[in-house]
Amino acid sequence: MRQTEFGPDGAYIRWTEAEGAGPARVHVHGLGAATGPYTAHLSAYPELGGRRTLYVDLPGFGISDRPAGFGYSLEDHAAALAAVLDAAGVRGAEVVGHSMGGSVAIVLAYRRPDLVSRLVLAEANLDPGPVPGAGSSGIARWSEEEFVHGGGFAATLERVGWLWRSTMRLADPLALHRSACGLLRGTEPTMRAMLTGLDIPRTYLVGDAGDEIADLADLTASGVRVVGVPDSGHCIMFDNPRAYAAAISAAA
Q1: What does each C-alpha distance from 30 to 70, 130, 135, 234, 237 come to in angstroms?
Q2: C-alpha angle 212/171/128, rounded to 5°?
Q3: Nearest Cα to 97, choosing from 13, 204, 176?
Q4: Which of 1, 43, 109, 197 gets the highest tally of CB atoms within 10 A of its CB?
């Protein structure tokens, strides 16, 4: 395990690594998740072997610190992720981001093009505002005080299914709420505008039973390769890990 400071003094973001050759591959988890549980099983597939791979937990989640003075916006998360790559000596990485992690990856690529040579995005949030069925909307409907201290976090854990609850219960409630609000608030320019304007290889993965993703034709027109993954919902890596691994490999 490795760590580096980010944001407020004394706070650390942490990651684990697998050794390998070639450009580093960086996995970034979604809201209320952690990269280890969501991606470790993918290392069993040979097409993803042999590459240096970083498994990063964003601030407030997994094994990383959760400072109360951090904003947890998409831009804040992207800056923390940049601190990881700088500390690890990584340039020109392939960044694989799921859901909110994909949004963070887009912001990273837009702000620090030296760090990212390729994006693989699994049902990443592209536009501000609520997405039908997305969990971030249910979290953000509470005020911060109500969510953290007034029962909102406990109610959310009851509402979500066991799979998401298994990692969400380990997240910091303040970080979870601020991250959800940041995701709904989006960025300026929007994540979609950032993504369509990037001049690097970009792949967008869609589960055939996943979230409703608007304007996929707009992505294709801008040169983003849109790939449907069969027999999967929003969490492609659990529903069809073999196809998910193959899609990541094919994007390289």
Answers
A1: 18, 16, 11, 11, 12
A2: 35
A3: 204
A4: 109
80: which 2 tokens? 């923390």
Angle of the 74-88 helix axis to the 100-111 helix axis, nearest 10: 70
Gap between the Cα atoms of 99 and 235, Å rounded: 9
What would the pLDDT profile of 207-222 be if each residue is shown by its tens digit? 998 777 878 999 999 9
Q: Which domain holds residue 88?
A: 2-251
Cα–Cα distances in angstroms (integers) from residue 192 to residues 17, 112, 136, 182, in the given order: 30, 17, 18, 15
Q: Mean pLDDT across the stretch 99-108?
A: 98
Mean pLDDT of the chain: 95
How many other β-carbons are positioned within 10 Å of the β-carbon of residue 10?
Answer: 8
**This model's pTM is above 0.90:** yes
Total domains present in the chain: 1
Q: What is the CATH number of the domain that holds 210?
A: 3.40.50.1820
